[in-house]
Amino acid sequence: xxxxxxxxxxxxxxxxxxxxxxxxxxxxxxxxxxxxxxxxxxxxxxxxxxxxxxxxxxxxxxxxxxxxxxxxxxxxxxxxxxxxxxxxxxxxxxxxxxxxxxxxxxxxxxxxxxxxxxxxxxxxxxxxxxxxxxxxxxxxxxxxxxxxxxxxxxxxxxxxxxxxxxxxxxxxxxxxxxxxxxxxxxxxxxxxxxxxxxxxxxxxxxxxxxxxxxxxxxxxxxxxxxxxxxxxxxxxxxxxxxxxxxxxxxxxxxxxxxxxxxxxxxxxxxxxxxxxxxxxxxxxxxxxxxxxxxxx
Length: 296
Hints:
This protein is α/β, with parallel strands linked by helices. It has helices at about 10-30, 45-60, 75-85, 105-115, 125-135, 140-150, 170-180, 200-205, 255-260, 275-290; strands at about 5, 35-40, 65-70, 95, 160-165, 190-195, 210, 230-235, 235-240, 250, 265. The radius of gyration is 19 Å and the shape is globular. It has two domains: about 30-125 and about 275-290, Rossmann fold (3-Layer(aba) Sandwich); about 140-275, Rossmann fold, CATH 3.40.50.720.
């Protein structure tokens, strides 16, 4: 029997509806409207597309949302000064600097300059440390989306064997730490594998829940998956272009067709984890507004 699809687009829509209610209540009861600023340096087409989508979603939810476009040749000092300006603006609750930044600008220095209470991406070391000890207000958006998909698909994490493929700071490491916590949607036993792991399939085949963020198209094969496992595919890889439409053909990090015959549930690509990321950014911005008003 083919696996059940975990449709991230549907879950994201449900969460956005919940957030809209929360935003309306914040405005009506407390006079607070969540405000997000996205800083875009240069004209990278992918970055522009991401930022546009973020602002569109923010406006739909009733946020104040500002896109601050800066030239490719902005100096690191000027960018730091801009971040500091928004750090000190009480009307701004969330700050997002779109990556990648141009050569010559230290991304780490810029991200570390953001006030941790306005770090809606969840990348500041203060927030990473809080995640580690289980007191985080802001969770990194993609891992937070993964956890929501597990919870809302009825996937039991408590006591489950989880295998995470990939050790990035954006997905692999944070989702590992999140699922280890004594918390709802967690309490799992987590194994993290990576490029230096000797026998990756030996670990993936033992997993009740398999989370793949390897950055390699169709890396995980069907026979790497435990029968009945839940598979979360984080990868989005362009593997060609459609002759009919001219649009990019996308594939995940899991061989979807093979996995469909083995797994009990699986996220599609596209339409799985992807739609959750922006939605969780919005959730963090609402939290930041509450935090700034002393409501959290």
